[in-house]
Amino acid sequence: MKIAVLVSGGVDSSVALALLKEQGHDVTAFYLKIWLEEDVAFLGQCPWEEDLKYVQAVCEQLEVPLQVLSLQREYWDLIVTYALEEIKAGRTPNSDIFCNRLIKFGKFYDKIDRSFQKIASGHYAQVHRMGDKYLLKRSPDPVKDQTYFLAYMTQEQLARACFPLGIYNKAQVRELARKYDLPNKDRKDSQGICFLGKIRYSDFVKHHLGEQRGYIIDINSGKKLGEHRGYWFYTIGQRQGLGLSGGPWYVVDKDVKENIVYVAHRDQLPEKSNRVFEVANFNWFLGQRPEKEELQVKIRHGKVIYNCKIEYVEEERACVTIDRPDSGIAPGQFAVFYDEELCLGGSVIVG
């Protein structure tokens, strides 16, 4: 097949490219340039220069053509703007999910030659066909599994998506990188958020929203415990960076209007709010909600998955109860639902 392969300079996408080339496909690598120059000027260096150098070295070694494609304006309009609006509203954005739907498998496909039959990436996920519909299947690596980030893709996008790493775990991918002797075989994994890359989250927020002093208050006693630089630097469930003694303390709520961050001690966390939450705006891959009410759910990327029960309040709104407490449930996050190994789709946590 003729396949467009998204490459980032990391080991995962490079191994995906090498695997497809070895399988005999007609592959072209694409590096997406997403940052406007003025938006990273405050960093003093361009965050993508090193990545692009690795991409070029990998493509040269594999003898694969490379195209650098600019999606800078689209990225700002669709991803960065969304993230800033969510942060200002006191919610917790997940830009990776929208980046996959709107940019990597959206605007990117609109810009490339339609002769490409598939779009491939280095995601740890598998596409599973069920009749004339497509679902995602979890990766065998529970830590690296990235179906959570792909849960808002459309049927059309899943039909043309290709994830060569879906059957591997991270250790196997590293071994493949050494087998192919890739220039980045020993490069560390990026831990950055999709739209930030190497940019520190706090620097990004400060650059766009500034600072504003406010109080940190114990939600149970009403006592003022300290001060903060602005509610937008904090997310529900956060424990680090509060600067409070006698902890551990967790962020449990925010007052956007009054610029107050509310915290609770671990011994006094409200249990109901840690097990029950509301979701809305579903994206079910099969086009309708599952018949089962008892499923599994992830509320963030990672290996932690909960058994849950879904009770629908209305067609596009439901109450979810998980089987054990989680102190990091925050409005704006995504809840992604599973039936064992199959990813069924996702929703937005609204309360």
Summary, kept brief:
The chain is built from 8 helices and 17 strands. The protein is an alpha/beta fold.
Structure report:
The protein starts with a strand and ends with a strand. Helices cover 25% and strands 28% of the residues. It has 351 residues and is of the alpha/beta class. The relative contact order is 0.13. The longest helix is centred in the first third of the chain and has 17 residues. The protein is globular and about 65 Å long.
Defining key terms:
3 domains, alpha/beta, Elongation Factor Tu (Ef-tu), domain 3, six-stranded antiparallel β-barrel, globular, Rossmann fold, 8 helices, SH3 type barrels, five-stranded parallel sheet, 351 residues
Question: In which order are the strands of the major sheet placed?
Answer: 12-15-14-13-16-17
Termini Cα gap: 45 Å
Largest sheet composition: 6 strands, antiparallel, barrel
> How many helices does DSSP assign?
8
CATH-defined topology of the largest domain? Rossmann fold
The count of DSSP E runs of length 2 or more, i.e. the number of strands, is: 17
Low-pLDDT residue spans:
none
Question: What structural category do the secondary elements indicate?
Answer: alpha/beta
SSE arrangement, N to C: EHEHHEHHEEEHEHHEEEEEEEEEE
